[in-house]
Write a structure and sequence with these properties.
With about 40 residues, the chain is mainly α. The protein has one domain.
Length: about 40
């Protein structure tokens, strides 16, 4: 697994966990950057 994929998986897990707890947190800049990179593909 590439590091980028691993980071994305971690960010997804964190996002799902936060959503489950209904915590509204600012998205991590790294998560936003990864999302932009994925959408650009």
């Amino acid at each position: 697994m590439r590091q980028e994929d691993h980071l994305l998986q971690l960010s997804v897990n964190i996002a799902l966990e936060a959503k489950g707890k209904e915590i509204e947190a600012e998205p991590h800049p790294l998560v936003l950057a990864l999302q932009e990179k994925i959408e650009a593909q």
